[in-house]
Every structure is written in structure tokens, then in C-alpha cells.
Design goal:
This protein has about 130 residues and is an alpha/beta fold. The protein contains four helices and six strands. It has a six-stranded mixed β-sheet with strand order 1-2-3-4-5-6, sandwiched between helices. α1 packs parallel to α2 and α2 packs across α3.
Length: about 130
């Protein structure tokens, strides 16, 4: 896999997976509302710059709940990502049940078909490979 690092912080690493043709966000640790918003804005910026339509959103390293940001992600950020060209969003859930509840809440409030939840990275990656680029 050929990935180019676009952004790195204590809470998120963002790569361009050049082979898969998608943005790969690897979230880490506990996430506050401000951390989620900052990471999401970075993701949006790179999605727009690279003109990508696929996102691999990996929460497998997230600990704890971030439900305070769930509504904002669903109602403000996802629509902006879709307007920027995102069509396929593979969301790998955290092993933390609290984080899973936040992801489920977000997807429930998002436009239908915006995100698909997965339990592991391999399944999410396989699904993205099957999706046609825009």
C-alpha cells in the first residue's frame, strides 16, 4: 500500500492512499468535540485539494465517547464532505462500545448512504475497492 502522509497530530493522522485512491484518516485516543472538529476540517481540506470521492475513516484506535460531536459531524460536516465530492465513506469502528455508540448516533442522523460502518479495517478496505470513483 502506497500512502502519503498529509497531516499528523496527537489525535489524527491523515494519509492519501494513492493505490486505493482514497483519504485515510486514522483517529487516535480520546476525542473531544474540538479535536473531532479540527480533524474533520483537515480531512475536508485534503479531500477538496486531492479531489477524492472515497474516505477510509479508521476509529479502531479511538478510546471513549465523542457523542458531543456526533450531531455536528452528521448535520454539518458530512454535507460539506458530500458537496466536496465524497461519495463513499467506510467507517471502521472503535473496539470501545462508547465510541461505537457515538458512530452509530452519527450515522443515524446523517443523510442515508453517507457512511457504512465496519468492524475491521480489512472489510472496510475491501468495500472501498469495490466502489466506483466518482
Amino acid at each position: 500500500m502506497s500512502r502519503r502522509l498529509l497531516y499528523a497530530s496527537e489525535h489524527i493522522d491523515i494519509h492519501h492512499d494513492e493505490v486505493g485512491g482514497w483519504l485515510h484518516a486514522d483517529w487516535k485516543g480520546y476525542q473531544s468535540v474540538d479535536m473531532v472538529k479540527a480533524g474533520c476540517e483537515e480531512m475536508l481540506r485534503h479531500l477538496e485539494t486531492l479531489r477524492l470521492s472515497k474516505v477510509l475513516n479508521d476509529n479502531s484506535h479511538v478510546t471513549g465517547i465523542w457523542v458531543g460531536a456526533a450531531h455536528w459531524v452528521a448535520t454539518h460536516w458530512f454535507p460539506r464532505m458530500r458537496a466536496a465530492g465524497m461519495r463513499h465513506f467506510a467507517w471502521v469502528q472503535s473496539p470501545s462500545r462508547f465510541s461505537q455508540l457515538s458512530a452509530i448516533t452519527t450515522v443515524a442522523h446523517a443523510e442515508p448512504g453517507t457512511a457504512v460502518l465496519f468492524d475491521d479495517l480489512a472489510a472496510a478496505t475491501a468495500w472501498l475497492h469495490q466502489q466506483e470513483p466518482r
